[in-house]
Amino acid sequence: MFSEIFIQVKGLTHIYDRGGLSERIALSGVNLDIKKGEFIALVGPNGSGKSTLARHLNALLIPAEGKVLVNGMDTGRPENLWEIRRRVGMVFQNPDNQIVSSLVEEDVAFGAENLGLPPEEIRDRVDEALRLAGLSDYRNHASHLLSGGQKQRLAIAGVLAMRPDCLVLDEPTSMLDPSGRLELMDILARLNRSGGVTVVLVTHHMEEAAAADRVIVLSGGRLARAGTPVELFSDGGLLRDLGLELPVAAKIARRLRRRGFLVPGDILTVEDMVSYLCR
Length: 279
Prior knowledge:
37% of the residues lie in helices and 23% in strands. By secondary structure, the protein is α/β, with parallel strands linked by helices.
């Protein structure tokens, strides 16, 4: 389904405070290919290196050893940084840290303005980004009056106005309520399926990981497992050993199978379970 490799991670090692008293190896020898158009979920226990790896994908961090290549460009070469960060947009956990303007549409325009684009193109990009993020009706609202979910969508819209090929999101739903999480996941799915945007989602919610094309599991700074959601969640023992939970629907399906019910092994979401039960 996906053929063209967009990001290559080769033997990536990252060391915080290298040579210092608090030296810590956050990533060790990680190898990973991310293909254009993929939806990747990056999961693992706290301290496994998820956020560190995410920051390497758009050159916010530089490898201590190994390489990260974005569309063939080495993140370790300073002359590549501008183009890499245009192609790979980053959205952080707390949207307040990314909002720079008091007005919604001005905030969305900020990144595009810094690309030096003509005013008419900036206007077109802002309109499109607001529409994709579901914020067209809020363009003249004060940024600080938005809800948490709306602020996170605003952060995404600001990145989208720069028209990146890839979105990297570091636990963007961790501060949202359930409805805000569903809203944001729907937007990411639409951007990926309809817009062709490559998505890398760092999350600790296994229900969100179940929506991905592929799940990457980190543990202790190393790649512990990679596979489709069905492949990953069928191995409940691995998740349990890593301190991770199955999605609720997958957990119910697993228990039903143990009681003799012929429940399919590919049930991962509530929708899957409802569909099966209605049949």
